[in-house]
Design a protein that fits this description.
Helix content is 28%, strand content 23%. By secondary structure, it is of the alpha/beta class. Strands 3, 4, 5, 6, 7, 14 and 15 form a seven-stranded mixed beta sheet that branches. Strands 10-9-8-11-12-13 form a six-stranded parallel beta sheet, with helices on both faces. Helix 3 packs across helix 10 (293-305).
Length: 351
Amino acid sequence: MSQQKDTNRRIVLASRPHGAPTEASFRIEHDYVPQPAEGEVLLRTVWLSLDPYMRGRMSDAPSYVPPIGVNQVMEAGTISVVEQSRHPDFSAGEWVLSYSGWQDFALSNGKGLFKLSGPVLKHPTWALGMLGMTGFTAYMGLLDIGQPQAGETVVVAAATGAVGSIVGQIAKLKGCHVVGIAGGAEKCRYAEEVLGFDTCLEHHQNGLEERLKRYCSQGIDVYFENVGGKVFDAVLPLMNSKGRIPLCGLIADYNATEQSSGPDRLQAFQSAILRKRLRVQGFIITQDYAHRFDEFFRQMSQWVAQDRFVFREDVVDGLDNAPETFIGMLEGKNFGKVLIRVAADKPGGGQ
């Protein structure tokens, strides 16, 4: 079903998943289109961002923000058009970065809305990708926590994903030797031939640690962690003294229902931190770096204008396909930044 002017499709959390989400974790509802009160705008969703962090929001385990409530709309960053406005700062027809979630229409009091203009308006999805939270996460995690120096070795997991692809390209701009880790030969070729990584290793193949040793002959100075699991196990022994590990995600464990089997790795991890004086720092981009977004946006916009970056988008049409696409993303089936095209609008009124 395509977007309709008089119906609001809402995808809500039907039940909290135990393990991997399934189609039964979601429910599509059809509701009326809300009307803005004084001081509000009605937003119509054009693009919807799907990101791994949403899996954590589906759980009621302790976290850094409250979980999505059962029967509540799934949260997400969106690109929206102002359909109606009763707010003095916004006009009908303006394009904004918003957080409307998995639905066609949403009301906003204007707080948190970011008007799109200039190059971003020409490419609205960039505001959800390399010039939005995705790029911001890569930029701050690598440069502020990782602090890569020319000649150092940087390893990044999920190398062709939305964050990892930006991390590796920034590291190359800083003169580093960059080794990616990805799932599948096609993704590894893309990392090397298109993104410009020095090499990319397929993590589904056996012997990842031995292959890492071969391509990280001088050890690893920075490991950008967004996966965890067996990839981290392979990386840790190769970390150099005073190595840095920015940690923004652990997607390998998001669907876990119990502790992983095998030996207890905590003692080895703690020993490595002490002996090698490693810096391991978790970060939440919106909570730790929101005050530095302008700094990121200025620099990243300049690099983008200079064609210094390649950014691949994995686009799926139709809001109804969001649940299936999200489930596939958690299984690594995506190739690049995952976006749902909810409507066919283009800036300027075209389609």
